[in-house]
Amino acid sequence: MAGTESIEVDPALLKSDCDSDYASSGYNTESTSLSSTVNEYIFENGRRYHAYYGTDKNLLPTDEAEKDRMDLHHEIMIQLLDGELHKAPLPPDVHNILDVGTGTGIWAIDMADKYPSAQVLGIDLSPLQPKWVPPNCKFEVDDAELEWTYRSDYFSFIHFRNVAQGITKWRQVLAEAYRCTKRGGYVELSESGAMLYSDDDSLAPENPARRWGELMTEAMAKSGRTAPVDGHLSERLEKAGFVDIKSFAIKQPFGPWAKDKKLKKLGMMLLLQGEQGFHSYGMMAFTRMLKMDPKEADTLCRAAIAATKNKKTHAYAIHYVAYGRKPEAEE
Ligand SMILES: C[S@@+](CC[C@H](N)C(=O)[O-])C[C@H]1O[C@@H](n2cnc3c(N)ncnc32)[C@H](O)[C@@H]1O
């Protein structure tokens, strides 16, 4: 596993008035703007959710605030992968690409721009994608847990990113992905873990951000979704038949507490993303899966956001990436 070293805390932050939040150090998130039947909605927790595939299918809202969050998270993901859109070693003339759970379609659009030779298809439970897209990119509303209708050996690359909250049948989904990947092609799984950690014990057991992660993991497990931890993704790929599997665990700091410049910027972006993210992920999971009172769930999500803004807390989550190759027939 790469990327599991401790992140060094910025000594300048330690020296300053530590009980206040980042706003006092010039890191103000408040003033920053984030940036038929398939359209049937339900409204819950003050948020809008698509209901076409059932209300318990996807835990995330599909309103404008969530779309902004997803787009910001896309930028975070690119920073995490050192400016890249994927880890798998694709040839420059890669052909058919599938993005499963494409969300706003931002990754698929970037891939279509980056690889003009490719036809990129993004599928999602909800039609959240824009109409004006590159000519080699298109979107369809579909549930990846249903039988796949694509030809066998068709895609050069199949990509799943942050879809764990909507998939219970990973074995079945990856069996389909294996069948539909061409020989020599790749499947990449890329998932942020739900748990928060600290290397210096600054995230105490009773810290609301830590509690949020524990409850999120519990809620996901209760509904048959597994929050990814070390080794999960590569194990899934291996069981499906992929070879040459490579996996990475990358720390994502919440807040600009790291000394390293790149991590500091990333931490700021994650803090901003978390302002929506804790609520987006938490509300449906806590109220439906754990039967928590909506007010209590809302209070916990808000407390988790506030906790990550405390300069004394050096919390991080882990983003896991694994990719594998479908072997050639003779291998
Ligand atoms: C957190 S968003 C991530 C979007 C995108 N992959 C990204 O990284 O920007 C998760 C998306 O996966 C979609 N999703 C979840 N389960 C799915 C399923 N079974 N089939 C298709 N899409 C799914 C959701 O509708 C949502 O738009």
UniProtKB/TrEMBL annotation:
Q: Which InterPro entries match?
A: SAM-dependent_MTases_sf
Q: Which GO terms describe its biological process?
A: methylation
Segments forming a coiled coil: none
One molecular function GO term is: methyltransferase activity
**Carries keyword Methyltransferase?**
yes
Q: Which CDD domains match?
A: AdoMet_MTases (cd02440)
Domain of life, source organism: Eukaryota
Q: Does the keyword Cell wall biogenesis/degradation apply?
A: no
* Classification via Gene3D superfamilies: Vaccinia Virus protein VP39
Keywords attached to this Swiss-Prot or TrEMBL record, sorted alphabetically, are: Methyltransferase, Transferase
Pfam families attached to this UniProt entry: Methyltransf_23
Q: What is this protein called?
A: S-adenosyl-L-methionine-dependent methyltransferase
Species source reads Sphaerosporella brunnea
